[in-house]
Amino acid sequence: MIKKAILPVAGLGTRFLPASKSIPKEMVTVVDRPAIEYVVKEAVAAGIEQIILVTHSSKASIENYFDRNFELETTLEQKKKYDLLDAITNIVPAHVSIVSVRQPQPLGLGHAVLCAKEIVGNEPFAVLLPDVLVKDDAADNDLAKMIARFNATNASQIMVEAVPDHMVDQYGIVDVAAIPAVAESVAMQGIVEKPKLGTAPSNLSVVGRYVLPAKIMQLLENTPKGAGNEIQLTDAIAALQASEVVEAYRMQGQTFDCGSKLGYLKAVLHYGATHPSLGEDFKAMIRELEL
Ligand code: G1P
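Above: the input record for the complex with 1-O-phosphono-alpha-D-glucopyranose. Below: its predicted structure, written as tokens.
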């Protein structure tokens, strides 16, 4: 069973400056809550019970957000603001724990995942990159489907979606014999990090959701620096794929890259428009905009 998920949150978020100068990019709000909460909720909905934040000294506000705040709780209780009290105390269910470990140097995504090696131990685990929000309201979300597939087959799962050909150099790209149908997994022949335009094996990009075996940690320890002079998770997955089946899972949900300003604005529009209490008024406001 996959019960642990690694969320690498140590990145400095240069694509989101100036906001990320003093606010972790993961704490920028999408409607009424920080972006990271959506990612944690996605993991919890897929059955994850321990969230492992791989973090940085400048990002304590992420840990604070998921911690209790006794002073605030007491004040809200005294003022009988029970709705707000509920909203701040039940961000994650009681059976879910949030732990953190530091990434002492910015050596890449592969290195960030490796920082969680001791906490993960001998169990398979999920990785969720918090820049990308996956909006998928199905009862069994994409990550849950990947976990179910891993449990049934033991094959690692890499979530992918098609991107326009001119964008392949921004992502990990998988090599598959045939493009899978939506919500299906197929064996990968290879995976490459940010290929140059015209050299990509497909236009299926790695979204930032992975289900991996504990063995990937040993492979990461032996992965040299790759693209961008960083230790790449993609390169360790390529090494894993050389010795066992790794599958590309084609997602059904919709992605929003909240690491980029336009992607973030798009997320605010979509999450705002479907918000249970604000959605209708928000849509009316958008219709009134004179653009
Ligand atoms: C990382 C991964 C890449 C993946 C991307 C998804 O890249 O290395 O394979 O496609 O996330 O957002 P980054 O965006 O951190 O450069």
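Notes for the reader.
The first helix runs from residue 35 to 45.
The first strand starts at residue 4 and ends at 8.
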